[in-house]
Amino acid sequence: MFRRSLILLIGFWIGSKFFSEAINVTNSRYRQNYHIIAPTGWLNDPNGLSYFNGNYHVFFQYDPTSSNGGGPKQWGHVTSTDLVNWKYTQPTIALAPDQSYDVGGVWTGSAVNNNGELTAIYTGLHNNTGEQLVNIATSTDGVTFTKYSGNPVVPTQPIDGTNQFRDPKVWKYNGVWYMVVGNQSKKNHGRTVLYQSDDLRQWTYLGPLADEPDNRVGSMWECPNFFYINGKHVLFMGTDVERDGDHFANQGLNVYFIGDFNYETKVFSHAVDFYELDNGHDFYAAQMFQDPKNRTILFAWMNSFGTNFEEMQDGWAHTLTVPRQLRLSSDGSRVQMIPVDELTLLRGTEYINSPIEIEGHDLRLYYDKQTGKLVLERTKDVRQVDMGSIMQLNLRIFLDQSSIEVFANDGNVTMSSRYYKDPIPTITLFAEYGVANVEFQAFRLNNIW
Length: 449
What we know:
Tachylectin-2, Chain A, mainly beta, 49% strand, single chain, five-stranded mixed β-sheet
């Protein structure tokens, strides 16, 4: 069977060690060929993205015992030397919930290289109180971790916040460690709070980095990321935002602010407007890191809480996106995402003027010149985004066994969605009510698993 592992380049000129009972994968029909997936069971948020000891490290929320994510979360682990060919570490579970402060789950967090020691900073769910606590674990080889004897390093949420307190993201600036954590205020609006430390073990609360008291950006901010890029600071997070026409259509989505952060005053001054990071059906819990080439690289979980994930009946669930490089638009007003250059290493057979068949169902991607919108339609569930006034549309499309990722006009717009097979359609390029000049390339992409 031809497994859909394909990239399309189109230009339009427009006129375990904790759990012993892992479940088995019973059907591989939707298993991804070149995306990160769990060996079995459930996967969600990317965690601990880092480069250490010559390897890229991607950890992920993992439950090998079920495909519905019902068990306590652990950190699964894959590594790569090139961001393309990934291998499961042995053991695959890097962090398991085996202490009182995390027995309810080793939840989302980040990782940093601290003088030759890879330090994971993660959320633990306490077994007695149900509190969400910040803990750390360290590794000298990047595979085997030892939890800090003084955990939790942040034993309680801020006094002016609720117990919704999770997903620490850490970075270093001028010799000082900083950390943002997702939190909910006692007035039940989402916010990101800020900490600092000299040693990753003793943390001082500095107050809210950003919040929106009118609840227009949701009631809880998860998985915050804060970073400097192209002369600006960017804060993005996962949240729930009321739908506004074509915008904010998913039940869970990543949004971002762009602004300036003053390390002296600890004030983040940002624009009022906020934007979606991705405009498809399935994109959440994004995390970024800086790689040795000084690139800002992102992975996300392809999920939005509204999709019927058919692979769950097959003993596994979910996938991450391909790695993406972040940058700002030329005017500094938008975050752009493009596939990392290394993904060209996946290319195999090139198709030139040949019919290409993929398995799919009711999936349509088209540009409507009259409205100026790029539309991704999945089983009559539409996501569309205004492309503005353009004369040329360039699309780079990644198709895998059960996902599509669209990068339009050099990352000005991205759309990520899961999809599942039914009858086998053909990929068709067509123009209605006019003429389009088209250049087309397609490559079969190699299977890394």
